[in-house]
Design goal:
Blueprint lengths: L1 H7 L3 H9 L5 H19 L7 H18 L16
Length: 85
C-alpha cells in the first residue's frame, strides 16, 4: 500500500480514508482487497516506470480495461459453516 500511495501522491492514511468512506461494509472491503490483490499482480509487481506520469497512465489504462473486460461481482461461496475434513 505504501508504494502505491507514494506513486500516486496520496498518503496511506488518505487511501484508507477513501476505502473506509461511505457505505463500505466488511464484505465490500473484502472485494476491494481482492481487487487490489489482482491489480498488484497485474500492474505493480516487478514494474519499472520512468516517471510518475507513466505509472499513473498505466494504472488508469488498466482500470479502464479491467472495467470494460473483466469487472463483475465476485461470487461468494462460503456459507459460514465450519469446513469439514
Amino acid at each position: 500500500m505504501r508504494k502505491l500511495a507514494d506513486a500516486v501522491g496520496y498518503s496511506v492514511s488518505t487511501i484508507h480514508e477513501i476505502l473506509n468512506a461511505g457505505d463500505l461494509k466488511p464484505h465490500k472491503l473484502n472485494q476491494v482487497e481482492i481487487w487490489f490483490n489482482i491489480f498488484t499482480k497485474d500492474v505493480l509487481k516487478g514494474g519499472i516506470w520512468k516517471s510518475r506520469q507513466a505509472l499513473v497512465s498505466q494504472i488508469m489504462t488498466y482500470i479502464r480495461r479491467y472495467n470494460e473486460q473483466r469487472a463483475h461481482p465476485f461470487k461468494w461461496t462460503y456459507e459460514g459453516k465450519p469446513l469439514s475434513s
